[in-house]
Amino acid sequence: MARDPEDRIGLGHVATVSFLASRAAPSAQFWLALGGGVALARTAMRAGARTGFGVSLAAMLQTVAVMGPARVNAPLTQALTAPVMGRLQARHAPAWVEFLACLAIRLVHYAVLMAFFVFVVLGGIDAVTTTYERLTGWLGVVPDGPVAALGALAAGNVAWALFFSVTQVAIYRRALGAWPAPEHGSAPVSGPGGTVRATAVGPGDTIRTPGRFDPRAVVLAAVLASGLLLASTAWLLLIGVLAWLVPAWLLAKPDRDALPLGAALAGMLAFAALTGGLLGGAGLELTLRRALRAVLLVAVATWMRAAAGPDGLRETFRRALSRLHRLPGVAEASVVFAGLDAGPRLIAAGRAAANRFSAVELRPTQLADALTLWVATEAAAYAPGAGAPRPALRLRAPDGLLLALTLAPAFALVGH
Questions:
Q1: Mean pLDDT of the chain
Q2: Gyration radius from the chain CA atoms
Q3: Range 335-358 average pLDDT
């Protein structure tokens, strides 16, 4: 059993680097997230499932603080499955048990994603059915109707879940069954004085947040606006949210780093909504409303990351973890989250990993072994400091006004 918190923090650092790479890459997200999954499985194998899920939560929150909430699904599946599989490995469960556990979690995750796509992006089962029948009706041999349409979507999800689960189990078992000794003297990021530690500060050290709004108010406003958008596609509501979002963006002094990723995701969802709506015969007006809602959902999430900033989101998450410490795994997450680097080392570690894997032969065993060695080396060499400077948060009148204006579009729901 691992009792050294720094061991868990090092593995949490690896998971964060891997998950950030997975979210930022245009393709191969599963393969890039595998290293993070191996790190989390190793944590759960040595320290228990509760600690494994705590480190998993810390790594996911750190990626959201750095990049925002867009495109979290690829690493999220690893974050959900890895602690379970690591604990099963510790109990010497057979491969088929690990496979079934991984498959079950993946299928539940995929079902939630499919429900969001069907009901929020496309507009419901009828739209999916009509689109399916228009795309396959010319074949004359496939069944039609809502059961067939949903079955086709589910079949694709099951096929991907089977492939990813088999691959994940094989790599996890190979990695955890023969954990390598870290390369002697290696360090993920070095400077003139050796390994670079996270910025050490005293417990009272703080920095000012760059934005105009308190990050806690920003996060709450984003949650409220997203809830309103999920409630309806009425034009009055959509225009009200847009009328709130434009000045909120302009007044927030936003950090624009997350804008390209958010714009790309918004474009993809808008295209899916337009294509599905027009093929499904929903009509141009309803299709435009659904497409605008999809774009606004992504825009609100992107605004949250831009307005709160990485430091503001980290401090918001840190305080939330502190208040929820009695929940299982949250206390462990709080310890690991405090020791994760705030940004620069994550980028450097990601580049180092890319350089390492560029010279590896494209064969499954070689890739798996190189991945495992990187996880072990990077985790062992990570030297957590006292944490980054904490922003000084203070709720003010503009924050209350922001929240009040966020709720203003809700009047459009009255009478609906």
A1: 83
A2: 23
A3: 72
